[in-house]
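Hi L., both proteins are below.
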Amino acid sequence: MFEYCVDPKTLEGWVWLSCYLTTAKHAEFYYSIFTVVGLLLVAVPPIMAFGFAGALAKRSAIAPVRWLGTTYITMVRGIPDIVFFLFVPIALDQGIEYLRHKVLCPAHEGSVWVGNDFVVCDIAKAPLSTADQWIHDVYGFTLAVIAYAIVFGAFAANIIDGAMRAVPKGQLEAGNAIGMTPRQILLRIHLPQMWVFALPGLSNLWMILIKATPLLFLLGVEDIVYWAKELGGMKTQAYAYAHPDWRVWYFAVLLIFYLALTWISQIGFDRLSARVSRGMAVAR
């Protein structure tokens, strides 16, 4: 904040606005942009891991593994996303605290369920109530990433499975004919060619993931939507920077932010698709 921002009530026009936009809460708003981008970058590896695991499980020659992969893909795709986004973090949090409770408080008697409440000993709470705020933030963010990975991993698995089926069988048979092992065929022929067919679907999934980042707000993470709602609401004279309901302006900023993010993403996917398709026109 600038030196002339000591008394907001004496400021007017652009000077007042410059002070208003540089408050500590606005710094949190700007920082939350990195939270959204960080979620996108951090969530992609586990999403792809779940995707490949689900796709390979669905194609497995071992029946129980194949059933597990099919069940995972069908169940997650058939249940509303918001149910998983709310269920997974709660289930993981309570599961972690329950295990810590059993290990750290073995002398504790009785059930952890007391009526409708889930109660564990104080030292079993995750994280501890005495932990720094950043630990609570990282813990909540990690649970959110796991929820995103499970949900979007199922969609990625379906895309990857379809892309693997689209690779011409003749190329796989040719690899087998020259003595390649199933592992070599998978790594050297099947997966490299699969990307040509998978990228369109994965690019759409990435766009849906971008649109789903506001669900962080429902998981207790103070993301860009939370701060837009918090800062844009009406502020009375009890606040240093009083203003009417400005949520429309804050959400307009979010609109521009997400449009820019999807535009940049589309350019990146177009270039990536052109790269992986180079010299592979015969695969059609």
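That was the first. Here is the second:
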Amino acid sequence: MPRASWRGHLRLSLVSCPIYLSPATARTKPIRLHQVWHTPSAGEEGEPPTQHTEREVIDLRASGPHSDQVEDRTEPAAPVSRITLRPHDPTTGEEIEKDEVIRGYEYERGQYVTFTQDELKALDLESSKVIDLETFVPRGEVDSVYFNSTYYLYPDGQMAVEAIRVIGAAMSDAGVVGVGRLTISRRERMVMVDPRGTGMVLITLRAADEVRGPQFSKADVAVDAEMLAIARTIIERRTSKFDPSKFRDRYQEALRELIEAKMKGLPIKPQTVQTPAPVVDLMAALKRSLVQETPAAKVAPPKRRAKATPNRRQGALLLPVRGGRDEKRDEPATAATRGRKKA
């Protein structure tokens, strides 16, 4: 079972069920560069530090490709220590124990009102324990600029599975997402709940005053039709399926190579970054881009659903089909047909 970061209830009108949230995203562990300083060795106070290896101060958690074409060069290493940040009195510099630190709000310069943990706990709202689906909006109507953090919403126990599936199926049929409130990390936020199979995805939303309005200039001139057609062709050639696994953090890879080069005493080769030249003739740039673009792999069209085989047991629901032997057998005899039989 995924680790729960929040437990409570999901409520739709008079229907409620226990749920728990688990983060849908994870922070990858980057290469950590610590804050350090050169500690003067015995008898070397006042001397400038020499170049050193960073083996003692950098936590290298992953390995990557590197070049071994240059021989290692040993360099003298100066002693290095990692600094620590501790709470202290800014006036006297005296260190303060962590259990002596409390929360406070500065209402005037140097004037604080302080709070105990019990006083802060008393502020808990209903949304601290219950996500009430207050309203529903069409899927796609919520602008992604409001998206904040993403969680998976799981039913907490077998009794909640059916309720989650019923609510989720109803939302999927209606093509809507639910909007409610959730208090987490001492902030009450709007949340968007979107069904996903037997569970749901919950996205915390930023408030209106947290999102800046765009300040784009108004378009006074219509877009050139030929330019638009070329740009669309380039986009179509680059259109493919979204595959996040192909993304690589090239900066972290370059940082890892730099660390390994310094640890081995290899020369550092600076990378060159070319700044693109400003486009003077947009039409000419579009045409050159079109020539060098190769079509991307075509996305396979969705398979057509096979026609459902009618259930012969539900004869009352089937519409009559004209023609065939059954129609001739069941057709009521008319005067004309009776006349033909006698003849």
